[in-house]
Amino acid sequence: MTPSEMKNAILHHLVYTLGKDVSTAHIYDWRMALSFAVRDQIVDPWFGATRRSYAGKLKRVYYLSMEFLIGRLLKDAIINLRLEDAALGAMNDLGLNYEQILEDEPDAALGNGGLGRLAACFMESMSTLACPAMGYGIRYEHGLFRQRFEDGRQVEEPEDWLNQRHAWEFERPEVAIDIGFGGHVQEIGKRANWYPSEMLIAMGHDTPVIGWKGRWGNTLRLWEARPMHGFDLQRFNRGDYAAAAEPEALARTLSRVLYPDDTTEQGKELRLKQEFFFTAASLRDILRRFESEYNDLKRLPQKAAIQMNDTHPAIAGPELVRLLHDERGMDFEEAVGIARNTLSYTNHTLLPEALERWDEGLMGRLLPRHLQLIYRINELHMKDTGSRKVTAVEDGHVKMGELSFIMAHKVNGVSALHTDLMKKTVFKDLHEQHPTRIVNETNGVTPRRWLLSCNPRLSSLITETIGEGWVDNLEQLERLEPHIKDSSFLERFAAAKRANKVDLARWFADDLKISVDPESIFDVQIKRIHEYKRQHMNLLETIAHWLEIRDNPNAGWVPRVKIFGGKAAPGYVFAKEIVRLTNDVAKVLNSDPLTSRYLKVVYPPNYNVSLAERLIPAADLSEQISTAGKEASGTGNMKFALNGALTIGTLDGANVEIRDLVKAENFFLFGMTAEEVMERRKDSGHAAEAIAKDSRLARAIETVRSGRFSPEEPGRYHGIADNLTHHDYFMVCSDFTDFWRAQREVDGAFGKPNWTCMAAYNTARSGWFSSDRTIRGYMADIWNAAPAPEVEDAAE
Ligand code: CR1
C-alpha cells in the first residue's frame, strides 16, 4: 500500500464510516479512520486463514484465558502488516502527528499482569506461526483499574476503554449461547438433566489477531454477558423504570469487571460465575464448530486442543464431560478420556493463596450437576490410580489445580525451575501417579511488540547488522555476537540506548515534572506490587544508598534513577503501603539538595503495557529480585534482556535460564536459592539475625520507622518496619546484604566500555525467549498441532 492509497482509505472511512468532515475531525476521528483503514487490510488474510483451516481440516488450538492483556493494537497491526511507511506518509500528508494518533488509543487492559500478557503474546505468535487457533475470554466492560496517586496513595479509578468505539472488534450477535446457573438436577440412570434457574446469554465479539507479515490471522473471541429477556416493557409502562432495567443490569454484571487480583484467590461468587460463563460458552462454541465438520465425537482430541490458562477455566473438565455424557449420551468413562485428551493445563504460580479453591456449598448451588460430576471424576481417578486419597475435593472445597491436573493430558509449568518445583511441591502426589504428565514450556515474549515495535532504534541497528530474519526467527540474534568486538557496532548500540534514555527523560520532565540525567543508570522495576516481588527490598537499598551519599556527598557516586511502576491489588493492604512508601521516599530524595544529583526515584502512575513499551527500551538495569521459588517465570525479565538491559536478580523463575544463556558474567546475581530459602525459613529468627549483621539494613529500616518519609504522620510505616523485623516471610532482610553488594557491583561496571558489551550480549543471546519458541513447544509437546502448510507473506 502506498501512502496515497492509505490516505484515500483514511479519508473514505472518516467520511463514510465515522460521518465526519475533514474540517471538524478530532484526533479520535482520525485515529478511528486510520484504524479502519488498517483493519481493512487484516480482513482478507484473516478470512483466508479461516477458510484454509476448514478446507485443510486442520487441528485447532483453543486458548481459554480469563485475561488477555493486549494493550494497544493499532501500531501492532501496522507493524505486522508492514504498513509503517504508508501510515506515516499518509499522516504527514494530512498534517497529522502519527505518534500522537497512536498514543490516542486506549490501552486495552483485559488482564492483570504476566498471565494476561503472556496470553496476548501467545495469540500473536500463534498467528505468526500459522497455528490455527482461537483465543476465548471475557469482554470486560472495565479492564484493570486506572491507578492515580493522591498524596502518594494509590487511588483506583474505573478503566472505561469501551466508552469509545473499539475499532478492532466485530460484533457477532448470531454467536449467542445460553448459559445457566443454579437450579436442580434430574438424574436418569447415570445421566442427568440440569435445569438451571437463572439464564443469560453469552454474545461473541471477534478481534482478529494478525501475525507477522500478515501471513495468518486468528481470532480472539471475547464473550459479553447479555440478559435472556431484555427489557420489561410492562413494568416500564407501569412507571417502574428501575425494575424494568434490572434483569439487563444483573446479567451485564457478569462481564462488567476484571477481578483486579494478580495472585490472590477471589472467593467471590461472581468470580466463579465469570469462570463458568466464559468456559461454558467457549466449549459449546468449540463443539458446535467441531460437529459442523465431523460426526464422530471420538475424534475431538485429534481436531481440537483446549488449553486452560491457569485454573480459571478449570470447570472446562466437568463441563466437557457433561456435554459429552449428559447431553450427547457418551459413556462416562469414555467422556472423561476424550475430555482429558483434549484438555491441558498451564500452572502459573505456586503461591498457596493463589491456588483456587471453591467452597463445595457454593459450587453445588451454582453448578449442581458439575459438583456431582467432580465427585465421579474423583472416584474414577482413585480407581484408575489405586489411590485412596480424594484429590480434587478437600475440607469442603473443590481444589481447582488438582481438578485441572486430573482432567488434563499435559500439565505445564512456565520455567524450568517452576516446573521442577511443581513436581516436588504442589503436585507431588499427582506427579508420582502420572510421571509423564508434567512438562515444561518456558515463557516467551513476542519480538514484534517487545523489540521491533517498541525499540525502533535498536531494531534498525540489528536489521542493518544481520538482516531482518530475526523478527520471526529470534535466535538469529546470536549473529550479533561477532559484532560485539567491533567498536563501531558498540558505539551505535550505546547510542541507541542513550537516545531512548533521552526520550524517556524528556517524558519524565514533561509529564511528571521530574528532571533526570540520562547519564545516570536507569534502574527499573516494573510489575505488580507484591511482597514476593520485593519492591520494598529495592526501596530499602535505595534508602541505604541515599543515607551513604548523605554521609559523604563528594565521594564520586555513580548517578542512578530508580524507576518503579506497578499497581497494587485494591484489597492488598501491604502492597498499597509499599506504593505509598515509594512515593514518600521519592518526595524526600528528589528534593534533597545534597543527593538528588546522584539518586532520584521516579514512579509514574498507571503502569500498563504502553508504559512498559516506553520504559523497557530505556532501561540499563532490570530488577528481577523476587524471593527464590516464588516467581513462576517472569516475562518482563525477558523483555529487558532482549532490549539490552542487564539483570540484577535472584535464581528465580526464568532468571535462571536467562543467566545460563546470557552467561554469568553478564548478569548480576545475588541472593539465596529456593532451597536455601526453604532451609532458612525454619529458623524463626532469620530477620533479626540478618538485621543484626548489617548496619546499613538496620539503619534503613530505622529510617523508615522513624517517620523520616512521613513527617506529617510518623507512625505511617511502622507496619512495614515491624513486618520486616519480626516476620519477613519473603526474606528481604536475609537477602539484603548480598543485594547491596550486587548493586555496588553494578555501580562499578556502569559507564565502563565493557558495560555496552555486556548489554549487547544480553540482546544477542536472548533469542530463545521468543514466544514463537514457546508456542512451537506447546504445539509439539502438548497440542500435537501443526502449522498450516505453505503460507506466503501477505504483506510483502
Ligand atoms: C507469574 O506470577 C509468570 C506469568 C506468566 C504469573 C509470572 O511469574 O511469568 O504468570 N502468574 O506465566 C499469574 O499471573 C495469576 O498468576
From TrEMBL:
One term of GO molecular function: pyridoxal phosphate binding
Locate the N6-(pyridoxal phosphate)lysine modifications and list their residues.
Answer: K639
Write the Enzyme Commission number(s) for this entry: 2.4.1.1
Q: Which GO terms describe its biological process?
A: glycogen catabolic process
Cofactors demanded by this protein: pyridoxal 5'-phosphate
Question: Matching SUPFAM superfamilies, A to Z?
Answer: UDP-Glycosyltransferase/glycogen phosphorylase
Primary localization class, coarse: cytoplasm
Coiled-coil features, chain-numbered ranges: none
Q: Which UniProt keywords apply?
A: Allosteric enzyme, Carbohydrate metabolism, Cytoplasm, Glycosyltransferase, Pyridoxal phosphate, Transferase
CDD domains of this UniProt entry? GT35_Glycogen_Phosphorylase (cd04300)
Q: Where in the cell is it found?
A: Cytoplasm
Its Gene Ontology cellular component terms are: cytoplasm
Q: Catalytic activity, per the record?
A: [(1->4)-alpha-D-glucosyl](n) + phosphate = [(1->4)-alpha-D-glucosyl](n-1) + alpha-D-glucose 1-phosphate
Record keyword Cytoplasm present: yes
Q: What does this protein do?
A: Allosteric enzyme that catalyzes the rate-limiting step in glycogen catabolism, the phosphorolytic cleavage of glycogen to produce glucose-1-phosphate, and plays a central role in maintaining cellular and organismal glucose homeostasis. Phosphorylase is an important allosteric enzyme in carbohydrate metabolism. Enzymes from different sources differ in their regulatory mechanisms and in their natural substrates. However, all known phosphorylases share catalytic and structural properties.
Family to which this protein belongs: Belongs to the glycogen phosphorylase family.
This protein is called Alpha-1,4 glucan phosphorylase
Q: Which organism is it from?
A: Tropicimonas isoalkanivorans
Its ancestry begins with: Bacteria, Pseudomonadati, Pseudomonadota, Alphaproteobacteria, Rhodobacterales
